[in-house]
């Protein structure tokens, strides 16, 4: 476990989570959620859980971002609250 | 600031504080004395058993796959069923919302050649990429018990290659390769393959998903290799279901359940 690397990833993780919750444009929110998934994937790979990291890279950063973008295109682009 | 949001912030802070307080009791990362790793007096530690015995039992180098598909095979089967059920729920909801079908607008193919050059570049690049992605997906599925990967990951990558086709040209091009009837068939066949391995073990007078007894059918050297090969078969079943359901969810979401036009 590389401590400095861990801190950097965790800081970016918190930043990505806050931005994806607070941004009004839902398309960029889902993109930033993909970044969040990829950072979690890095964290797991760094802890040695390579299988889980692989799943997160494929599902969290890949497919779920695409599914959310597809949903945003068929609903409203802007968040109301 | 409204009153309700103040209450929400207070609730979040209290919940977060309780969770952080709970984390302080956790064993530290990789602690050999933690409850998950240490043996209880009178019985063997589960982690120790998997680490020391799983290669001898199954001849599978990837410990995660041997736990996932063999020792905890029942769990993984119902994970696949959960994905199947999620897909069915999405079809049921979107099918009832966007069920009414409009007459199809036939657009001329010449627009592809005339104006839109960016579409040609994107389309050609994706057409070159798709076979590479699919071969990689098959590699991930087939080598699930030798390296990281397996049915879930490989299935998602395979579905991503179909989604790339749908994104770069249109949904019809992807549905020509994996039509609605075929992806529903593929999803059911995947679960039937998984459950079939279990029932086959029962027919040979053993427990459900106890792959060792499949040795006379699979013609392997011993019950260990039978377990290894059965894991590959089970992973292929998982990959079928995951591929079909992931692509089907995208196709339904992007076209509001009508399976026409897409994004």
Characterization of the model:
- The complex is a heterodimer of chains A (81) and B (263).
- The N and C termini of chain A lie far apart (40 Å).
- Chain A is 83% helix and 0% strand.
- Chain A is flat.
- Chain A is built from three helices and no strands.
- Chain A has a domain at 24-74.
- Chain A is an all-alpha fold.
- With 263 residues, chain B is mainly alpha-helical.
- Chain B has a domain at 62-96 and 117-263.
- Chain B has eleven helices and no strands.
- Chain B has helices at residues 3-23, 46-58, 63-71, 73-97, 111-114, 117-142, 151-168, 171-177, 180-203, 215-218, 223-254.
- In chain B, α7 runs parallel beside α11 (223-254) and α9 runs antiparallel to α11.
- Chain B is globular.
- Residues 108-112 of chain B have low confidence and may be disordered.
- Chains A and B meet through α3 of A and α7 and α11 of B.
Produce the secondary structure layout:
The complex is a heterodimer of chains A (81) and B (263).
Chain A: H1 3-22, H2 26-47, H3 50-74
Helix pairs in contact in A: 1-2, 2-3
Chain B: H1 3-23, H2 46-58, H3 63-71, H4 73-97, H5 111-114, H6 117-142, H7 151-168, H8 171-177, H9 180-203, H10 215-218, H11 223-254
Helix pairs in contact in B: 2-3, 3-4, 3-11, 4-9, 4-11, 6-7, 7-8, 7-11, 9-11
